[in-house]
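Task card 7
Instruction: Convert sequence to structure tokens.
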Amino acid sequence: MQGICFIEPMFKKVISEQKSQTRRIIPASRRARYQLNEILYLKEPYFVWEPEHTPGGMDKRFAYKYGAEKELEQFRKLEFELGYSSYYWHNKLFMPASHARYFIKITEIGTQYLNDISKKDAIAEGFKSIADFQNTWITLHGFSSLKANPLVFVYEFELRVKV
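Output:
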């Protein structure tokens, strides 16, 4: 099973069902990375407790950074009580599928030039306007990418929680 990464604000929009599309630059191979009806797991930063320090048993060894403010508060308190001087979140790129909480199913795949995005599509991307979408695109890919107007895959998806 493949995973997919979103920046934290977009991750939160996906799990709250405010985002149902994502655009990805078409690679040189011209092949779509994700396929129709494929189920992907959402990658997020995580922490793995040592077995002897696991709160709530071995099935609770994973702590998740996104959207778990209450859990993070308990996590930091326990971390302090155990005498850890610091903890670190594992990079979301390496999150195993077996510990994912959220999944999406690809329901449609299309292509378009980046700057052909409509207001409706910008909203489906989780933004209020095309300008908001473009500002985030520039933050992630640079102004030159927006100016180049690359051909992108448009993936439409639906949220699934635990398959």
